[in-house]
Amino acid sequence: MNKAKKLYLETFGCQMNVSDSEKIVTLMKGIGYQQTADPVEADLVLLNTCSIRATAEQRVYGHLGKFKSMKKQKPGLIIGVGGCVAQQEGERLLKKAPFVNLVFGTHNLHLLQKMVSGAEQGKQSVATDFLDDEKRFDLFPHAESEGGVSRFVTVMQGCDNFCAYCIVPHVRGREISRSADKVVEEVAALAAAGVTEVTLLGQNVNSYGFKEPGAPDFADLLRLVAQVEGIERLRFTTSHPKDISPRLIACFAEIGKLAPHIHLPAQSGSDAVLKGMNRGYTRAQYLEKVRALRDACPGIQFTGDMIVGFPGEDEAAFEQTMELIEEVQYADLFSFIYSARPGTKAAEFPDEVKRAEKQARLERLQAAQKKITLARNESFVGGVQQVLVEGPSSTGDALFGRTGGNRATVMDGDPALAGRLVEVRITEGLQTLLKGEILDV
């Protein structure tokens, strides 16, 4: 009897890559590979990569060095690189790392089985072509509808915004939306397998739709998915502020299953910097959307992204970002030092901000946000939150779940509660999570 082949898969970057990795696991099972958490056991190593920042790209090449050493000990080991670095680098990746067997881009998951089978025969291959719109979604398989409490469902891919700093349109392509029927069909299959929470994914979900008379927009899609029996909670990410419509904002007031949380990247609090970034909105317009969302859903929690040190950001512009953070009171904020990405418009801009100043600004911003996050978490103490139990905590001695506002929460309870919404009285608010006690269930 043949020994089962083992797949070791590492995922970098955004939730879209996490979703793609679920599909990769399904595809590899189809040609006899079972996933392992131990790279030493692997016959096939795949890295699903991110190139949104230079540090993410450098990390990928660092990891490849580790697997190069493994391959010297195990010559038959197959190494593949997919995702955004693969899309960006293509053939250049093989020149930098000739021990890699295959490189597959963001539009080429459907070729992966054939490429791996070829690598088993000693063939090296690269596939980074963009597909046209008619073929694109038909060639992307669903992940297996097994297990888990919460799953991602891709509703669109690509982006048409071309923010000056962003490489996404260059590595993911232009926007393309899946039909609402196919999205609902996938969600229903997940619900039938026991999934109770889905997160609808896209680079900019707010612009979902076919832009044809009568075709569903994103607000319509949310309402359709909320009707799927078995789905208890609904989330989505990521949102571009300029494309949030009044109809979408109304969903937070009208759809009970829609979680009171939105990831709304501002990127800067300065109008001059926002213009240079080609974000398509002003600081005042961003804050107007924030107020409208809070009016529709008073308890809504905001998370976001900020870039520090974008070309042209002087001290006054940075202070405007700091003021925006204080005004919005984000529950969490992902913040990064600007790094030029090849092919983007901003890569042509003179970078006037010195590295040391960028680092100092980032540390100031993160220190301020750390205080806000802790204060917001402490504000929940004594109140009751609805928590979706996901399973055991990382330490194994409690249950882990998330509030509707996406606050990580731990509490004592029966592991059989996994997948259920429970009422939890919050007893402690820490920097990264809440602690609580489950009320009678």
Question: Summarize this, please?
Answer:
It is found in: Cytoplasm. With 441 residues, the chain is α/β, with parallel strands linked by helices.
Mean pLDDT: 91
The share of residues in extended strands comes to 15-25%
Largest sheet, spatial ordering of strands: 2-1-3-4-5-6
Total helices: the number is 14
By DSSP, the count of extended strands is 19
Based on helices, strands and strand pairing, what is the structural class?
alpha/beta
Write the layout of secondary structure elements.
Layout lengths: L4 E7 L3 H15 L3 E3 L8 E6 L4 H20 L4 E5 H7 L1 H6 L5 E3 L7 H9 L4 E3 L5 H4 L13 E5 L1 E2 L10 H5 L3 E2 L2 H13 L4 E5 L16 H9 L6 E5 L8 H9 L6 E3 L7 H7 L5 H14 L4 E8 L6 H14 L3 E6 L17 H25 L4 E9 L6 E5 L4 E5 L8 E9 L4 E5 L3
Helix pairs in contact: 9-10, 13-14
Subcellular location: Cytoplasm
Cofactor: [4Fe-4S] cluster
Organism: Geomonas anaerohicana
Description:
The chain is an alpha/beta fold and 441 residues long. The chain contains 14 helices and 19 strands. The chain has a six-stranded parallel sheet with strand order 2-1-3-4-5-6, sandwiched between helices. The chain has a five-stranded mixed β-barrel with strand order 15-16-17-19-18. Strands 7-10-11 form a three-stranded parallel sheet, with helices on both faces. β16 and β17 form a beta hairpin. The radius of gyration is 22 Å and the shape is globular. The termini are far apart. The relative contact order is 0.08.
